[in-house]
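Lab notebook: predicted structure, single chain.

Context: the supervisor wants predicted structures on file for every construct in the current expression panel, including those that have not yet been purified. This is the next one on the list. No modifications to the sequence; it matches the entry in the shared construct table.
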Amino acid sequence: ASIQAQGGEAFAVPVDVADREEIEIMVDTVLDIYGRVDILFNNAGFGRLAWLENMSAERDIEMQIAVNLLGVIQVSHAVLPGMLKRRSGHIINMSSVAGWIAPPTYAIYSASKYGVRGFTDALRREVQPFGVHVSGIYPGPAQTEFGQHTGQHPMKNSALRRYFHSMTSEEVAERVIELAKRPRRAVILPWYYKIAIWADWYMPWLVDWITMNFLTKKRNSYK
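Prediction complete. Output recorded below exactly as produced.
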């Protein structure tokens, strides 16, 4: 409604990105109406945060990988041929800072987001010489319902949270729009997470000490 109010055109196609047939129907529908896909923003995803042994194999593990990682791959696979044929297009993949740094209880979520980062980098190197841009966006915590349904987890009440600003979804959306207008390889939000990523790369022992002392030691009280 807000898009139409500003003079734009909006068309919604509900789809389960874990279902390949639904993806094909969605892409065919969009192509029938608009004739082409100029920009693909892979934003579907969810997180279930818990200690690994407490997770459900199907609901918590398989579905996170199916939606967060395989969904990104399969939707990209469906639209890519048209972009390559036109030698133009832009695929933007929503990953996470958790795709660079993996905190406790994020084992499966981080696995999916590390996968998105690897897929994004490899695909960019495959198709950019042929006019198709591929970008990754890596936000830190945002003010959404992400992870709320999982109950208590170490990060929720951790003293670490007071040091990190939670962005609004509108702030993230603005950066996505900027990225669509001016393609870049990667955008990390907020900027200071680049320092944390650098520390995890060059001083992993320090990040291990921080996460284990502030987060993992809460394990005994975690339900």
